[in-house]
From TrEMBL:
Organism from which the protein derives: Brevibacterium aurantiacum
UniProt keyword terms in alphabetical order: Lyase, Magnesium, Menaquinone biosynthesis, Metal-binding
Native organism taxonomy: Bacteria, Bacillati, Actinomycetota, Actinomycetes, Micrococcales
Gene3D superfamilies found in the cross-reference section: Enolase-like C-terminal domain, Enolase-like, N-terminal domain
Reaction catalysed by this enzyme: (1R,6R)-6-hydroxy-2-succinyl-cyclohexa-2,4-diene-1-carboxylate = 2-succinylbenzoate + H2O
Purpose of the protein: Converts 2-succinyl-6-hydroxy-2,4-cyclohexadiene-1-carboxylate (SHCHC) to 2-succinylbenzoate (OSB).
Record family assignment: Belongs to the mandelate racemase/muconate lactonizing enzyme family. MenC type 2 subfamily.
Active site location: K163, K262
Pfam families hit by this protein: MR_MLE_C (PF13378), MR_MLE_N (PF02746)
Pathway of action: Quinol/quinone metabolism; 1,4-dihydroxy-2-naphthoate biosynthesis; 1,4-dihydroxy-2-naphthoate from chorismate: step 4/7; Quinol/quinone metabolism; menaquinone biosynthesis
Name recorded for this polypeptide: o-succinylbenzoate synthase
């Protein structure tokens, strides 16, 4: 597979509803799309980094620079036998996982299209549908949260994730649990607490939660071990897990009982597959988290979530939840809490070329003969 051309697009999409976490409120997604072309076939990948380095050290402008100066020059004009090779090619570049993932995702899509198979099939997926949950941002009041969750439950979402932070946690979750005693419910703290909050966090055990996601520091594994030892509620690690090595260390320490695998956070599909396999071997539940992606990123998430180790509903909600018009056709839709895994070649969706062009704010292409 000759990598004849790689294009980096910077794009902007307005969210239908503002999304609030413990670290920010987002009304717009400023993100990158990577296109990898071989002959007349193009694969698409998406960079999940936000415009600011609040979730992790990566951010859109930084990823764009790393792609332009370091990653794309390693690939354009080369011959790739299989997408697995990308990880080794990028190995000299430390971290920068979301930038790496954007290129690797485009190569996986390109390779699957050239092979005439779906991306899900290419990565070893076994499911034809995946369960889908909804991530709910922090609300101003308990009543607003309950109303929002009630509407989502009526839509049929398989699981509800509620973002929390100090001052917007126990009473909010308790209100939801009172109204919906049977709904699968989890909390996501995005690193908003410390071990000094242990007694407060232990009160979450009263609410029969599926898990609490990343309660402590974004780069911590050790303190999560101490917290998990005193919590009945399973801890799920997100921001702390950037690699297979991080996953192995967290499992050996007993720092969590569940892992959230985000393709971008771990550096791409190849690393995500290895993490899924390790967790499956060790008996840990796994699910696929989201980064407010466009349909391109959502398609990649659906493919990885089709692997057998993804045992819990993920965050890949329908396009219409976030965008007035997505960049893929047809858009991602849900039926009674499940989304069909695309079966067409590559990501299985067509690109809405007019919409992609409309939301592109800048772009740059690199070809084999003018690197």
């Amino acid at each position: 597979m000759n990598i004849d051309k790689i294009t980096i697009r910077r794009a902007s999409l307005d969210l239908i509803t503002p999304f609030t976490t413990s670290f920010s409120t987002q009304t717009n997604r400023d993100f990158l799309i990577v296109e990898a072309t071989s002959g007349t076939t193009t694969g698409y990948g998406e960079c999940g980094a936000f415009a600011f380095p609040y979730y992790s050290e990566e951010y859109t402008s930084g990823c764009e620079l790393v792609l332009i100066e370091h990653l794309v020059p390693l690939l354009v004009g080369t011959v790739i036998g299989h997408p697995r090779e990308i990880r080794d090619i990028f190995a000299p570049i430390k971290r920068n996982t979301m930038a790496k993932s954007a290129v690797e995702g485009a190569i996986w899509d390109l390779w699957a299209k050239l092979e005439g198979v779906s991306l899900a099939n290419a990565v070893g997926g076994t499911k034809s549908t995946v369960d889908v949950g909804l991530s709910v941002g922090i609300k101003e009041s308990e009543s607003e949260l309950v109303d929002f969750v009630s509407a989502a439950v009526d839509e049929g979402f398989s699981r509800i994730k509620v973002k929390i932070k100090p001052g917007s946690d126990l009473s909010f979750l308790r209100a939801v649990r009172t109204e919906h005693p049977e709904v699968p419910l989890m909390a996501d703290a995005n690193s908003a607490y410390t071990l000094a909050d242990t007694e407060h966090l232990r009160r979450l055990d009263e609410l029969d939660l599926m898990m609490i996601e990343q309660p402590l520091a974004h780069d911590d594994i050790v303190d999560h071990r101490h917290l998990q030892q005193v919590l009945h509620t399973p801890i799920c690690l997100d921001e702390s897990i950037h690699s297979l090595a991080d996953t192995r260390q967290a499992i050996e320490l007993g720092s969590c009982r569940i892992i959230n695998i985000k393709i971008g956070r771990v550096g791409g599909i190849s690393e995500a597959k290895d993490i899924e396999q390790l967790c499956r071997n060790e008996g840990l539940d796994v699910w696929c988290g989201g980064m407010l992606e466009s349909g391109i990123g959502r398609a990649h998430n659906l493919a990885i979530a089709s692997l057998p180790g993804f045992t819990l509903p993920g965050d890949t909600a329908p396009s219409a939840r976030y965008w007035k018009r997505d960049v893929i056709t047809p858009e991602v839709t849900m039926d009674r809490g499940r989304i069909d895994v695309p079966q067409g070649p590559g990501i299985g969706f067509d690109i809405d070329a007019a919409q992609l062009e409309a939301i592109t704010t800048s772009g740059r292409s690199f070809e084999a003969d003018n690197r």
